[in-house]
Amino acid sequence: MKADIGNATMYCGDCVDVLRGLPDASVDAVITDPPYPEIDRDYGRMTEAEWHSMMDQVVPECRRVLKPSGSAVFILQPNSERVGRMRPWLWEFMAKWTRDWGMVQDAWWWNISALPSGGVDRRIGLMRPSVKPCIWLGQPDCWRDQDAVLWTETSHSIATRSMDRFEKKSTAGGRRVVKKRMGDVALERGGVTPFNLFPVAGCNRKDSNGAGTPAALADWWTRYICPPGGTVLDPFAGSGTMPLAAIKRNCRAIGIERMPKYFAVACERLKALEPEPADLFAEPAA
Questions:
Q1: Which of these three, 192, 223, 248, is where a domain ends?
Q2: pLDDT tens-digit series, residues 89-113
Q3: What is the reported pTM?
Q4: Which residues contact 216 (CB under 8 A, 6 or more apart)?
Q5: Rounded to an integer, what distance in angstroms lies between the CA atom of residue 124 and that of residue 119?
Q6: Separation of first and last alpha carbons in the chain
Q7: By the 8 A CB rule, do 183 and 166 touch?
Q8: 130 three-class SS
Q9: Domain that holds residue 157
Q10: Whole-number Å distance between alpha carbons of 233 and 26
C-alpha cells in the first residue's frame, strides 16, 4: 500500500521489500529508529540473530539508495538479557557497520526525562539508563550543515561577555584559551558548536507506538544531514515522526511502516500537517 501526502510518500509493507523498489542514489539522508531485538511489541519479538539478519539487508539497501553525499543515522537502545548482563547486539552492529561502511562520528541522545526503573533502585545498584547511540554512518565528507544545528549560547556566557570579563585562562585540562574570542565566535555565528550528546526529553507516547523518537531529535538530525529541499527516508516510520520532521523543514519524506495501524496514524498526522504554510517552520532570524 502506498500513500502520497503532499511532499511525503508513505508505504505500508516490509521495509526490505519496499527498499528494493526504490531507485539508486535517490535519497539525501536516512534517519530512523528501528525496532530492537528481544522486546515484546504488538508487531512481534525478534531474537538477536533475527534482528541482525534483518539489518544486514536494511543497511546495504539504505546505502544503495543514498546519494554519494548522503549519510544514515540509526537510533538504537541497548537492552539487557537480565539485570546486570547487557545483550551484545548493539555493539556488534556498531562494530560491523563501522568497519564495512564507516562511522562519521559517534553521537548520542541523552533522554533527560528518563525515569528510575526497577533495575536501578538502591537494592540493585545500577545506573539509570538514559543514553541511546545515534549511529551515524557515511563517508567522511558526507553532507552536513553545522550552522543549522548550533546551540543557544548560555545566559552565563552572554552575561560574562556583556561585562567584558573574558580573559585568557587555563582549562581544567591545562589548555590555554582566550574566552573573549570564544564568546565572539558564538556571537558571530549565532550560536555555539553542539556537543555530540543531545539532551532531549523523551517523546509523548500518545504520538508514538510506545517506542518513538522525540520530534526535537528528528528535527535536529534533519537540519544537520539533509540539505534544504532534500529527501529523508525512514524505513521504520512508526507513527510518522521522522517524515513529519522532514516536511516541517521543507524537505521530501519517504516513510515505510509494516504495521497497518501505525501506517494509518502516520498518514493522518501528515494529512493534518499538509495545509500548514511552510514558512511557519522557518528558523527565527538571529
A1: 192
A2: 999 999 999 999 999 999 999 999 8
A3: 0.86
A4: 200, 201
A5: 6
A6: 43
A7: yes
A8: coil
A9: 152-192
A10: 10
